[in-house]
Amino acid sequence: MKVVMQGEREQIQIPSGHSFRVLRWSRSLREVECVLGPDEAERVTGEGTHWHFHLEMELTLFTSGEGTRFVGDHIGSFAPGDLVLLGERLPHYWHTRHGSSGISVQWYFPLGHAFWSFPETASMTELFRCAGHGLHLRGKTAVEVSDWLQEMTQVEGLDQLALLLRILSRIQQATAAEHRALSGRSFALAAESHYQQAIAKAVRHLVAHFREEVRLEEVLKLTHLSRPTFARQFKKHSGRTLSEFLNHLRLQAACRELLESDRSVLEIALRCGFTQVSFFNRLFRRVMKVSPTAYRKSRKG
């Protein structure tokens, strides 16, 4: 395989002679290759290890790995087979617990792009709009699309393009049971946001320290933003306030521990950063629609 080293790039670069790019990784989201053909790939800088957004739409499949998925204002767990369609400028981030592998396809087809010159693509506008919330795919659609994504790494040229069109058509035809929106709201962030790096630092800090007491003063010092600017930009980029974001991080961790350990609800709540078990129970019921004990019992069978 031919591998060409690339320098660090913040913006996505579509390879010359291509209208989209196919990425794959086998160990870590930091070690990503852009697949140009069956025996040719370029090494590119992986951006999936931090909170970010870009103009391009993206379809991402995890073939291995697990952790926490952040899409817009959504925070949830993911496992092997996770398949998500992301719209333009939708903030996202996958925090993997260990290593991972997978495939992504990224494209940018704004109005005026040659893609829309074919009458048959007009029906795709609704799918692209819905992708602005992030679409989690499952069922038969996810199985078929996952197979075609893996096939895309073994072909080139028109064969790759044909597979992309087949994938988009299949997602468009998915039944209501085979997809769900992840983010409660869509995002229209500026193409170039100089706050993006600051918010990424804040999110990284929260993910690393959510089990501890997180002080706003520490986050402000880290991001070099004033209190009102940080509050405004964090809500704009994540769809949540700092406390809401932190509580949902802790809640997802608690869900994992309820299933993976035999610790008491009280111990799990404290381990995940909640200082009052009564607040934890109320939040859990509000978000998960059941009590922590009932959640554990139903998921463990």
UniProtKB/TrEMBL annotation:
One of its GO terms (molecular function) is DNA-binding transcription factor activity. InterPro entries: Homeodomain-like_sf, HTH_AraC, HTH_AraC-typ_CS, RmlC-like_jellyroll, RmlC_Cupin_sf, Tscrpt_reg_AraC-type_HTH. SMART domains: HTH_ARAC. The keyword tRNA-binding does not apply. Residues 200-298 form the HTH araC/xylS-type domain. PROSITE patterns: HTH_ARAC_FAMILY_1 (PS00041), HTH_ARAC_FAMILY_2 (PS01124). The keyword Transcription regulation applies. Pfam families: HTH_18. This is AraC-like DNA-binding protein. It comes from Prosthecobacter dejongeii.
